[in-house]
Amino acid sequence: MPSGGHCLDQSHETPRWATALILLIAVGAFVLRVQALLRPGGILGAVVDYDEGVYYSAAALLAQGHLPYRDFVLAHPPGSAYFLAPIAAIFDARRGFQVARVSMCVVGAVNVGLVGRIALLQLGPAAGFAAALIYATYPEAVSSEHGVFLEPLLTLALLAAASFWFGLLRPRQRPTPWSAFAAGVLFGALRLALSSGPASPSRHSCCRSRGG
Fold this sequence. Notes:
This protein is mainly α. The chain is built from nine helices and two strands; from the N terminus they run αααβααααααβ.
């Protein structure tokens, strides 16, 4: 019983400077990710991965009212298409792809902040700094979080669900029914984002209209 109260007190006594430092690491993570796109030729000058084209094409088709697995073949999970569809609807193809890439850098920075925040409130400032710094500079994370990929969004959903479950948005000893419900919704959205329709082929990645 005393240990539970002690943990609760610790969460409320988290120093603001520790949170500010984690936010600073998150900003640095954004700079690290976006600088990979700042090459001659601008954001589109960076190497474009095949999967990026598939994900963004799926988002553009979805923005036009075409549903994946029903109206066009998609061998990838649809999560990124749902996330990117508003961007594809607002901007033309060239500008939209640029905005999509930068938005993934923002998602990566948010992921860094959530990792650091979870570790900070559960294990203390040293753990928070270490977790945020390691994630911010981990090569695999940096490479996937400056392109139009599904992984940054899956990580964001998992970390947000964990944040609600542990009550980190309002530190408390146990999750409230509402925070537990929010975590469940995010886990459900994560499962939906990873689900592929029955029409999606398993051998090759592709995105083509059934009509053409």
